[in-house]
Backbone:
């Protein structure tokens, strides 16, 4: 069982990098194609304008499917993919976290 944890940790680390890439891509698309929505979200970015309120607005945009209002197939497919990716990441993280806690309990 302990052989799985380095693999899961590596997978989680790579997933974070992929998530950052997807966020950057979506932010750029919103900035160029839907500037009013981008501004209403607080002009989020990965580093410079990364605040809790911007992150909450971005997650609300994803989870409340606010991207449907934009009627943009590119934003729709990217947002759906990001939702699936986020849910898969959360599941793997949960398995990793529970597995580590069970390992310490023994």
Residues:
């Amino acid at each position: 069982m302990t052989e799985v944890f380095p693999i899961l940790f590596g997978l989680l680390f790579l997933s974070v990098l992929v998530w950052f890439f997807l966020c950057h891509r979506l932010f750029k698309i919103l900035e160029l194609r839907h500037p009013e929505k981008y501004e209403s979200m607080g002009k989020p970015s990965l580093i410079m304008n990364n605040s809790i309120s911007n992150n909450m607005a971005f997650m609300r945009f994803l989870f409340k499917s606010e991207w449907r209002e934009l009627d943009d197939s590119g934003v729709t497919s990217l947002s759906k993919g990001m939702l699936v990716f986020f849910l898969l990441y959360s599941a793997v993280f949960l398995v990793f976290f529970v597995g580590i806690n069970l390992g310490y309990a023994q």
About this structure: The chain has a mean pLDDT of 90. DSSP finds four helices and no strands in the chain.
